[in-house]
Amino acid sequence: MILRPYQVTALENLWVALQTEQAVLLEAACSAGKTLLFGKIIQRLLAANPEFRILILTDREVLVRQTQNKLLSLDPALSSSIGIICASVSDVKTLDRPITIASRQSLINRLNEFEPVQLTVVDECHLMSIPRKNDVEPPDQFGTIVKTLRTYNPKMRLLGVTATPYRLLHGYIYGTHNSAGCLPYFKEVHHRITVGELEAAGFLAPLIGKASVPDCLSGQLRNLLIVAGEYNLNGLSDVMTESRHISSAVNAWNEHASDRKKTLAFCCTIDHAEKLRAAFNAAGISALTIHSELDDLESYANMQALYRGEAKIFCSVAKLTTGLDVTDIDCILMARPTKSTSLYKQILGRGQRMHSDKKDCLV
Known about the structure:
The chain is an alpha/beta fold. The protein is built from 12 helices and 17 strands. Helix 1 packs across helix 2, helix 2 packs across helix 3 and helix 9 packs across helix 10. It is globular and about 60 Å long. It starts with a helix and ends with a strand. The relative contact order is 0.13.
């Protein structure tokens, strides 16, 4: 696989940083090839140290599957070296391979059986809560896993990768530009690949935007309860599931996006996603939902339909926000207001991957 020039530079900078730093951070825009980059680092590390073990830690099962597929496309010989710890991906939990790909939810229950690792890669590391000065325990499962693995091996390296190195209320996930009392895992961004850089080089699809907002919505949002810096989801759902707002989303798509091939509609709750799907279907527009309450069979079927383009609209809540690698998405329907810059940028990134059948992505 031939690397792009910016990927060669990124690999060398990250490799050098990992020699001396316990925690290394890569900020890389959507489509920069984050999985390829840490896959190449893993290859190089195991080639030099065959006895080493590496953990790739993710937040959800779709990232476990995608990471496994990406690593195997990089090097099919890795198939015997990869173990999976994720309940919804594999019933068999393989804990003793050189490379383990795990969801945090599944690994947290097997930590006492898990051997030390020399490198932990956290994909979408902006999802890690930042520890604070007086915390007695780590603030989330990511933190518990990292703390436990560092007791097993104090020299373990942590490599974080994300397109959005900041969190609502916390500020940046590195350095000192964050809220009072934060103790980030990362001192700095060790390498940065920006949206502007990739757009200029022709590696990202440009975004174009249209706004279609009912006049009443701004006032309704001003009256919503704010929890941890974000709209309270139950209150937001009550607003966005009103028939006038469901209708406005369908009408906006009909007016601006009816010629688009594949649309991701981002919703605030499962109830909202299901009502929006039903409204699109009632209007004669094929739509499916993708969310956490679908059973395994329907979830798999709907994801396959997304990959194959077997519906026009795919209504999701949070499941497709990060890491989704479907290149021909040419429309984003932002049906959920948010105060989170990180969430908004991650959502936009779902539409910026390049594909031969699209020239841009409509938001």
